[in-house]
Amino acid sequence: MEDLIYRNEKLREENNILKALLENTHTHLAYLDRDFNFVYINEAYASGSGHSKAELVGKNHFAFFPNPENEKLFRECRDTAKPVRFHDKPFQYVDQPERGVTYWDWSLIPVKDSTGTVTGLVFSLTETTKRKKAEDRMRDAIEELESFSYSVSHDLRTPVQAILGLCRIFLEDYSNILDESGREIILRIEKSGKKMNELIDSILSLSRIGRLAISREKINLSRIAEDIVNELKQRDPDRKADISIQSGMEITADASLIKIALTNLINNSWKYTKKNSCTRIEFGSFKRDNQTVFFIKDNGVGFDMSSVKRLFIPFHRLHSDKEFPGTGIGLATVNRIMSRHGGKVWAEAEKGKGATFYFTIDDDGISDIESV
Fold this sequence. Notes:
By secondary structure, this protein is of the alpha+beta class. 46% of the residues lie in helices and 23% in strands. The protein contains 10 helices and 12 strands. A 5-stranded antiparallel β-sheet has the order 2-1-5-4-3, sandwiched between helices. α8 packs across α9. The chain is elongated, with a radius of gyration of 30 Å. Mean pLDDT is 83; it is low at 365-372.
């Protein structure tokens, strides 16, 4: 008897905790029976719907919120017993036109009895309008910044080319009257102009990546990586290198953009291992939380992890140009490409002991929002 009383008290306590959680969440929650009648709604749902709990409980959902498209989805969820989920689903309040279009993350989760029969649906909604508008503003700002970068970079090309041309003319026409110091000055101007040209090309490339439309197709990462490595070996035939590439790595993504990203990552490993007696680079993948994580690992100079946040910012470099030439755009380009594919890129390293770059790709969709 005492054990039964204890179990009942424990059950009441758990029910009170559950009720407190349901009633105090900002997520709109409702439980509907098989015929889509309201059995339970929480306070957030009642407040958001403009109706009291007393008005809704026991009544049919579509009597209050008629929508043929949604009704079809509810029936499919009930009949197939498969959850339905939407991200940023737009909704127009017919009875509250002043609210305009709102956006919601919402889901339908079927509830089954012991025989596997669906007895009802859990309907949850979280309004995402504010976040969606913030993302739209961010997208507009990014597009404006990219347009500005493209225009400025394009306009800079002409004067830089003029400087380079004048340097060549000066060296050709006046080399006989220039002393060694004068020739050195002109050559330094020419070298700086070429560096500026590289930066302009990199900025234009980075801005184009944000503007390009993305198309998805099945691509073989292993094959692309092998082509990149073969090209590097041809350019540097005397380099002793041990390259390991996992076979059969495939994803669905934009082939041209992913090739740019892999080229940057593998070139990075190749560049920062040039002082080693033997370059070692490994490209592989592993599963984590049901997601494929790809990695490129090398035995190069590495870096201090306190600087890791600077890696993917344009023009931020951890090594001098004299030691390892570059523009500081490559990893920013990789970051943008992964962001546009709904994935991400990050790194781990130790100074003097190499670096590993990881990246993920979302096979389900493409993001228009950049990482910032």
